[in-house]
């Protein structure tokens, strides 16, 4: 059983963290993930990402999409990471091993 709202909230934070850390020219990132009733957890209804950074940040669509897709593919492991204490919910950065 999964609390999808909490899981997506954590996943959105992980996406934002990874975009800031891994994509050049992004200074700030926000991510919103929306669920749909009866859909698989790894298939959200929508993902919205906004970034701020240098003028080049607006040209990074493909890199942002790839990064978010990769992080979404790891969604199943988020519950395991929470159980192990590898995610520091409520603190930044969320994932301590990066």
From TrEMBL:
InterPro entries: AdoMet_synthase_2_family (IPR027790), AdoMet_synthase_3 (IPR042544). Gene3D superfamilies: S-adenosylmethionine synthetase, C-terminal domain. Pfam families: AdoMet_Synthase. Keywords: Plasmid. This is Uncharacterized protein.
């Amino acid at each position: 059983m999964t609390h999808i709202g909490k899981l997506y909230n954590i996943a959105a934070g992980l996406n934002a963290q990874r975009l800031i850390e891994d994509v050049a020219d992004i200074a700030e990132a926000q991510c919103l993930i929306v669920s749909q009733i009866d859909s698989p957890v790894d298939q959200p209804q929508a993902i919205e990402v906004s970034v701020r950074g240098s003028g080049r940040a607006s040209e990074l669509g493909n890199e942002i999409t790839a990064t978010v897709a990769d992080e979404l593919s790891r969604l199943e492991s988020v519950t395991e990471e929470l159980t192990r204490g590898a995610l520091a919910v409520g603190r930044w950065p969320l994932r301590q091993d990066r």
